[in-house]
Amino acid sequence: MTTLQKTVLLTPVEFELAYNMMLSAGQVLSTEQLLREVWQYPPGTGSPELVRAHIKNLRNKIEPNPKEPVYIKTVGRFGYTIRDDQSPASPNLPA
User: How far apart are CA 90 and CA 17, in angstroms?
Assistant: First the structure.
């Protein structure tokens, strides 16, 4: 199997978002967590739409088919996760 590699240019916010998600690869991060960690918003502030928009932009840059993502997944009502290639297990969902 061959893998294609390409250079992807990310904005500083896209990089910070991807970096924070990769630190917790395989785990679900809530929109609230991402707003705090990436944008430094205090708890309970910030717009989930901001996270959605940047996730969409990031998917458009890194996913083979952004409409059927394989790297960044949305976990309904919980948040987002990025694939952990080290572990075949499914994302850890909150209890």
Answer: 21
